[in-house]
Amino acid sequence: MTLYNRRDLGLLLLRVGTGGVLVAHGAQKLFGWFGGHGLEGTGQFMESVGYRPGRASATAAGLAETGGGALLALGLATPAAGAAAAGAMAGAAAVHVPNGFFAQEGGYEYAASLGLAAAGLAVTGPGRLSLDHALHHVADRGWMVPAALGVTAAVTTAVVGMRGRRVRREREGEQEVLFGE
């Protein structure tokens, strides 16, 4: 009989909790479940905050959250799952940075917490109570951690950077209109 230690149980709780929240948020974006706005409404929101094209951005964020969250909860392909979810949360946090840290003020606290938990799981691994362990870690090799996090960091930096430049250009254009009259 195999006894699981506190670390395995803790990782299971962290994976299921973090993954479940991510799945719910992704399902709001993709399907309009749980009071979400689906791809159409989320796409319009994404456009309004500088992520273009909006529908494609909503689809990418929804898939990263739903897919990454589900895989994290199952403990399957943990490096890729954690990296995908962390990237999506970095994109969300970028929208909220102007509002400061705390969520009650519209800040990035919540997105940052989910992203850090997902990245931490990617690095730490899923524990023995996971599909990765049951499948002998075929999708959870040591080299996959820096590869997944590196690719996600590069893509996220590019996407968030493009959004930031777009938002600054639009803000400067509004100022020209205000002061140019």
Automatic annotation (TrEMBL):
<dbReference type="GO" id="GO:0005886">
    <property type="term" value="C:plasma membrane"/>
</dbReference>
<keyword id="KW-1003">Cell membrane</keyword>
<feature type="transmembrane region" description="Helical">
    <location>
        <begin position="70"/>
        <end position="95"/>
    </location>
</feature>
<comment type="similarity">
    <text>Belongs to the DoxX family.</text>
</comment>
<feature type="transmembrane region" description="Helical">
    <location>
        <begin position="107"/>
        <end position="123"/>
    </location>
</feature>
<dbReference type="InterPro" id="IPR051907">
    <property type="entry name" value="DoxX-like_oxidoreductase"/>
</dbReference>
<feature type="transmembrane region" description="Helical">
    <location>
        <begin position="143"/>
        <end position="162"/>
    </location>
</feature>
<keyword id="KW-0812">Transmembrane</keyword>
<dbReference type="Pfam" id="PF07681">
    <property type="entry name" value="DoxX"/>
</dbReference>
<keyword id="KW-0472">Membrane</keyword>
<keyword id="KW-1133">Transmembrane helix</keyword>
<protein>
    <submittedName>
        <fullName>RpiR family transcriptional regulator</fullName>
    </submittedName>
</protein>
<dbReference type="InterPro" id="IPR032808">
    <property type="entry name" value="DoxX"/>
</dbReference>
